[in-house]
Design goal:
Blueprint lengths: L19 H10 L6 H14 L12 H50 L3 H4 L1 H23 L4 H11 L4 H27 L7 H20 L4 H7 L14 H6 L2 H32 L6 H17 L1 H7 L1 H21 L3 H15 L2 H12 L5 H30 L4 H18 L9
Helix pairs in contact: 1-2, 3-6, 3-7, 3-8, 3-11, 3-12, 5-17, 6-7, 6-16, 6-17, 7-12, 7-16, 11-12, 11-15, 11-16, 11-17, 11-18, 12-15, 13-14, 14-15, 14-18
Keywords: Membrane, Transmembrane, Transmembrane helix, Transport
Family: Belongs to the major facilitator superfamily.
Organism: Suillus luteus UH-Slu-Lm8-n1
Length: about 425
Amino acid sequence: MSLSPTTTDPVFNPDEPYLAPVAASACRASPRPSCKIDLAEAFVDAIELSPVTPVEKQNDDPEMLSVLSANHRAQKTREKIQFAALCWFVCLEGWNDGSNGPLLPRIQKVYGVGYAVVSLIFVFACLGFITGAVSNVILAERLGFGKNANSVGYVACIKENAEAKMSVFMAVYGAGALASPLVATQFSHLPQWNLHFLTSLGIAISNTIALSVVFRLKPQEECLAEIGIVDVNNSTSEHSHLRQIFMNKDVHFLAAFALLYVGAEVTVGGWIVTFIIDARGGGSSSGYISTGFFGGLMVGRLVLIWFNEKIGERLALYIYAVLAIIFELVIWFVPSLVGDAVAVCVIGVLLGPMYPIAVNHARRVLPRWLLTGAIGWIAGVGQAGSALVPFMVGAIAQNSGIQTLQPVLVGILSLMTVLWALVAHGSRRPD
């Protein structure tokens, strides 16, 4: 018969740490009558070595995994198709903006009009842009209209590589604006120069077909749901989306920035050919300088993505704005045909990333449920700038000469920089 205490194997309880063997061992190993301290130390060791509560086995049903994988692939394919259709649309927008520069001198010659009258082309285009900007907030939700704003809002809603995709998306605009002056310059030498607009009509018809087939006039929420992005409205405001948009001061700062940016971009692309011909003595092939500008715009939106990510997009835009002002001063004060042509291309590279950066910033500071309407307003006001600023330049040039182009652009770029400083820092997006 043994006098030693009877020991039993402890029953494992996953909700309590297993201490018995460790504590008992510590007591037996201690030469002192009390093992209080050793028990405390053993308790600490036991906590470190206690087993983890078993986790339920994950569902690894091969059939279920296969279905999920197939759905994911289908969503990715659908996303690529939608993105391609939107890129083709924004290419048309670039094509339209890039056509004006090489054709303006020919239009002035054919119709015998001055700078102010020919700049009315930009003004009448503005009417459609303003109407679309206001009506898009309502029509985009109800009927799926406003695909320009929807396209930017769609890319802004993407969570995976959104900044890079926005830059690529905007670069396609530059590709359209790059190709258009090449074609328009050739047509400007022909007796039937206005046949150039038949090419624009063909691209527009193909866009109408592509957008109708891919999106089928669905609202953006349904289009995003098809690619696995659920757009949840977390708004607690009793006000309508339209009122929430106009109550947000960041929307107005970004809209004013877009107005000046798009105005400066279209002004350079539209009037630089006239400036080179009249102020620098360029020939009929000066229309290719507009191609260089929009080519730089496209290149800047692609090759400077890494730089934007490295130093931060907000700081990068300040750097681009300052450098663009410097090169505008070079064109202003250095009367060199070749030097001015090179400076115009560099300015295109510097202006290129600015608009994608502004849209990316809107994506960070604005609620997702307001993105489509807000970006629609920002883009619409920006397109209004594409009419307002070139018309203003034309009116000034009518009285003071085309040499006033560079001082006006320097002032616009400086005001853009100030507006960018007023936009909210960081991310305040509630979702």
